[in-house]
Specification:
This protein is α+β, with helices and mostly antiparallel strands. It has helices at residues 18-28, 37-42, 44-47, 81-93, 106-112, 133-138, 145-157, 170-184, 190-204, 206-209, 250-262, 278-285; strands at residues 11-12, 50-54, 57-64, 68-71, 100-105, 118-122, 128-132, 160-164, 212-218, 221-232, 235-243, 268-270, 291-293, 295-300. α8 (170-184) runs antiparallel to α9.
Length: 302
């Protein structure tokens, strides 16, 4: 049983914290991809993530060597403006060089838009891409012609096996993630190396995280993996999608196959943000999102 930290005593996020945090987030029904235990757990080393309770709200604090100390938006019921204001003041007391809440959803951002003493900025590179699941499964119509071609081209060249990820496949899936990192020079990129560590922890802790995932084998070897879970009662969030660069069509195939087989009850798919990477932005736009889930930075001035 996790020890529940009070506001005066934030604790580092650990796997043992999963049960209370999953329940708090389930009640909150977040729309943004960061407010999810798996996402927070994956990136806890990168952001030195800690958490605590303040009355009926759950707070998440991050501290990064380049970005400094900041918070995520408060998770809890009702009007969160007062608790968010107090949280920003606490960050100032703790010496944050720019007291701020990052990745804040639109609702909280609009509540601060015209309040004196605060600055609210949209951050496009953090906007989540949200799609109709039926679009990504059916790939119907002219706008998805290229995607259908990707799948048909792959199927004409290769036999493949789709399999749900199970604990005994973790080592093979991790091998693919390592091969992807070698090609993409993860060791030279702080964010990619942080993601690689996170993926390794998801796979090693698979039995404890209640995730769903899929792998595709080509000629007996796993060449693509994907991992997702419910973000809220209407939306699945995709945390991981990796494929051997030698089989570029596998990205389209595993996305379509996973959503067809695993998430029939959910109408929406959140495929997270592009982090300002132009190639990633182009790829996400090529799937024709229904909308972008906007995120903002709320900063305390003065």
């Amino acid at each position: 049983m996790a020890t529940i930290p009070l506001y005066t005593d934030p604790k580092r996020l650990e796997l043992s914290d999963r049960a209370p945090l999953v329940e708090a987030l389930r009640r909150f029904q977040p729309a943004t991809s960061e407010l999810n235990f798996t996402n927070l757990f994956m990136w806890r080393e990168y952001y030195q993530t800690s958490w605590c309770l303040w009355d009926q709200w759950t707070l998440f604090l991050m501290e990064h060597r380049d970005h400094g100390l900041f918070a995520m938006e408060p998770v809890g019921p009702g009007d969160r403006v007062e608790i968010a204001s107090r949280l920003l003041g606490w960050l100032r007391e703790k010496g944050a060089r720019r007291p701020r809440i990052e990745r804040a959803g639109k609702e909280l951002a609009l509540a601060f838009q015209h309040r004196g003493g605060y600055q609210v900025d949209p951050v496009r590179e953090h906007f989540d891409y949200v799609y109709l699941r039926s679009d990504l499964v059916g790939l119907a119509g002219k706008k998805y012609h290229a995607k259908r071609n990707h799948i048909n081209r792959f199927k004409s060249r290769w036999a493949f096996e789709y399999t749900p990820i199970r604990p005994e496949l973790a080592a093979e899936c991790l091998d693919l993630a390592r091969r992807w990192c070698e090609v993409n020079a993860c060791a030279e990129d702080l964010s990619l190396s942080g993601e690689a560590r996170g993926i390794a922890e998801l796979l090693s802790g698979w039995s404890d995280l209640s995730l769903e995932g899929a792998a595709i084998r080509v000629e007996g070897q796993i060449q693509a993996i994907t991992v997702g879970e419910k973000l809220n009662d209407q939306t699945v969030v995709i945390h991981v999608e990796k494929a051997n660069p030698e089989f570029p069509e596998l990205y389209t195939l595993i996305n379509q196959q996973f959503l067809e087989r695993a998430w029939a009850e959910l109408p929406w798919v959140n495929r997270e943000q592009d982090l300002g990477d132009e190639g990633l932005r182009k790829a996400k736009l090529s799937y024709h999102p229904d909308h972008l889930e906007e995120k903002y930075t709320i900063s305390l001035l003065g």
